[in-house]
Specification:
The chain is an alpha/beta fold. It has five helices and eight strands. The strands form two sheets. The protein has a four-stranded mixed β-sheet with strand order 2-1-4-3. It has a four-stranded mixed β-sheet with strand order 5-6-8-7, with helices on one face.
Length: 202
């Protein structure tokens, strides 16, 4: 609300320089804004009394819209890319499609995996689900399952979402810990081994 739209009898006023002027009557606050050829803007209507600021409202709205526009430009528009699989897609074809999915996920897009069962193929729904889940393991470094495989009529689909950088770093640290544990166990086993020919002959 601005100027005459403000109905409160008293307001806490901030001037155009950001200085706190304290609580005063609405008429006095409006008069101060008018004297500067500026607007009285209610910036905190829920406060008691409401907080108003003297400003150029037109300029304020322009700057606000400019900031919102810049923020929208910086926002990544997430697209959903679709990849179609067959029930018996061969391994090399699956790998090619997985590479495409990795590119999409790396770019920050979601990936919809779809599969259509024709005629007697409805008898191989479990096989189709197995193929989809195998496909997921091929892209698990960059993607995570957002929507599990679901059958709707003759179509099965699932959705993969890109992993955040934080999640990828966490998983990498866990893998490193596992590898370090394996190395430590192997070194311990080697140390416990008795070298052949170590028995002394009397």
């Amino acid at each position: 609300m601005i100027n005459e739209q403000i109905r409160a009898k008293e307001v806490r006023l901030i001037d155009s320089e950001g200085n706190q002027l304290g609580v005063m009557g609405i008429q006095e606050a409006r008069a101060m804004a008018d004297e500067l050829n500026l607007d009285l803007v209610n910036i905190s209507p829920s406060a008691a009394p409401p907080v108003c600021k003297i400003m150029d409202y037109g300029k304020f709205r322009y700057e606000q819209q400019k900031k919102e526009k810049e923020a929208r430009k910086k926002q990544k528009v997430v697209e959903v890319k679709e990849i179609r699989l067959g029930i018996f897609t061969e391994e090399h074809d699956l790998a090619t499609k997985a590479n495409n999915a990795l590119k999409f996920l790396t770019a920050g897009d979601k990936v919809k995996i779809s599969m259509r069962f024709r005629g007697r193929e409805m008898g191989y729904v479990s096989k189709g689900r197995e193929t989809m889940l195998r496909f997921c393991t091929m892209v698990e470094d960059m993607g995570t399952i957002e929507k599990n495989p679901i059958l709707e009529g003759r179509n099965m689909s699932m959705v993969l979402a890109p992993k955040s950088e934080k999640d990828r770093e966490k998983e990498q640290k866990e893998k490193d810990k596992i590898e370090q544990g394996k190395d430590a166990n192997q070194n311990g086993e080697k140390q416990n081994e008795i070298p052949s020919g170590s028995d002394e002959k009397i």
